[in-house]
């Protein structure tokens, strides 16, 4: 639809969408140089190269809003002169030595601008800023190559919102600084890599690129300057420089591979290109079109890939002989598995075997694992690690709205007027998603409420931070709901049209008065009323929650209470609203979606449904068991009871991540036969009879499904290391040894089969997932997906949601001697037990080991300081760990990250107590006693950790400070002055 017309270089042009002038000209393929502008960052206005004339006046096209009847000139000689002045200033800050530069890969925007503008020389000679190169183990900053475009600052301040980088415009020669001019390693920088991703040149660059990208760039530091001088002498004029460097850049294309993948860490589902040279990973390059993350990454996704080439990788099968393992050939390992599985099945029946799938593996591999269990062995004893984290959230949503997935996408979270985060350490657990919340709050006024027992970063930034008593979230959520109903603030129209069981539910709220909530939760009436009022005042509310909610005895009921509150207030069925149970692992959503559950086929169809079972029996050509199998919690008990004799586990370190691990490890020792399939020799592998070497995500094709129900393809980047194999190939071989006749040649064939059987993703195909294309389930047969989960109705009888009454399950009680509440969760730098991230020297340098957060009050009471080593003892075991004194925790609450498999592993303390509805372990219900072992010790957290930095929040780059400098003149004004002088 045409809104209005403008004139561009004498030609009438229709304007269909409101946008900046630069974007409009770009869409019309009118060339205008620009260096500071980035589509994901917007107008920064520092470089001035995009100057054009509008209605006779010089303007920066990046920040100029196009208006009706504007007359735009881009080819005027004055425009070109102003652009050249601006570009000359840029070149005064940047030395062109493209042929020996690691950034000469066809995407250096300075190189390309010089070439396109046909610049042959510069008036302002390049000169040093007389400031040393800054570097750490992740990236480096060369001030003498920095053009002060400010992209890195904009990305740090307003996309990542770590707020570390600024430009000090008051220096004689301005440059980028960290905090208050700290070294990188002593700053608040979290090494997310945004700065190097958006830098238009080689000023901010990943250290993996240094000396590796170019054919002539790998010189030692002392040889680099002579080489630059030689190159510049040979390349007389910029035309020859461009020609030679373009040839060298083209040569690089022959040896540098760029392959799209999806991150293997958390559930956000960041996608990016991986640059490799042979097996060497040069850098991770996110793309604006990546649907979940755009240009964003966290430290793990950007720099946490050392594990792929680790010397500790499993590369051959291992077979136990006594207390030792020996290397074996694949044939021998498969022979042994075949023999043992067949014998156990024959002697003790199909249900004497069990299978545990992985949240780290692909959808296709989860599909095959459950097909192996059901269709080959004949058991529904199949589960995955969502049992440890997200099953209660899924249960709460199944009960109320019919689907156990996020209501919308990350974009909906970003546009919501009110975010309520409950029991979610979002900034550390889901860093890129958290940046969207921080950005929306900072730039758009989004309101953020955090309910948590620990003051993490999002709590520090929150408009309202409340600290409920541990395990009491259901009470205050129900009290908020009751208060809103009592005030008449509920959405009566929505309830009447879209919700069942309203009257019964309203009656069930009677116990949850404000007085009762204050007594049980330790929140004040004002805090509860403030939460209710904020929901009333917001047009859209989204609730984010994670393990702080789900890992309790009543985790499913608390998740249900969240959904009840959203239904009562009409916060479903519209963009920017709804329920967002944040998935922890990269494919924990997909593992359940594709049937790695004891009671559900792929797409969440019940194994007890005769029609569904018949469909799978016909497709697979087998008879299938009709009764639900054991979940992984029940499997442990069944082993102890002698009812389960063999387990095949892939991609999960269950021996350290399950609760009450002394109990779990004792179970593993009782198994007749135990097969573990993994990338590394994990804690769980120690109990195995056969260990099979699997390939990580960079070594295979497949799909992951992220927290927002989004299917994304990952492409094979590297060949499998040694004799390791992709999980799907291993599972297929095991299945065929046991009598199957599978012949999959590519994961796409597995997806095609799954899509044919599961209505939830009937239209999913690899063709529709090419490159950065994605689909959010449900996906109809024609490929239409569902970004907003609920539109016209809910997938329940008569299309209505159900308000589901719940009662509070009080947390587990302990003897009086256990007086320390041990909270636990993730850290930004490491992932889960650390099997992958501790392989990174750079990441481990920042956070070398696990530590215990202790409050200042508790530290003073017990004589504890940074580095004090303590023992925590619960009724189930003990840990030894060094302390950090912090204001993030309060009173006798401590925080023990889960990121270790050593003597500080949290699950030596946890019990077998679990959510009453899903058997998810109550990891968060731990009390322990503490004793000091070593009063003095080295701090477990080095001073180079970002926690000790001093961020400097501001909006963007403060470009007005540049314009106010005495040495700055707007190029358009300079052109006017020159022409006035010439004409005068």
Helical residues, percent:
25-40%
Total number of strands = 36
CATH architecture of one domain: 3-Layer(aba) Sandwich
Radius of gyration: 30 Å
Q: How is the biggest beta sheet arranged?
A: 7 strands, mixed
Structural class: alpha/beta
Strand content: 15-25%
Q: Which fold does the CATH topology of one domain refer to?
A: Rossmann fold
Number of helices: 33
Q: How do the strands of the widest beta sheet line up side by side? A: 15-14-26-25-24-16-17
Uncertain regions: pLDDT < 50 for 5+ in a row?
Answer: none
- Counting copies of identical and different chains, the oligomeric state is single chain
CATH class of one domain equals Alpha Beta
Distance between the termini: 48 Å
Family: In the C-terminal section; belongs to the prokaryotic molybdopterin-containing oxidoreductase family.
Keywords: 2Fe-2S, 4Fe-4S, Iron, Iron-sulfur, Metal-binding, Molybdenum, Oxidoreductase, Repeat
Cofactor: [2Fe-2S] cluster; [4Fe-4S] cluster; Mo-bis(molybdopterin guanine dinucleotide)
EC number: 1.17.1.9
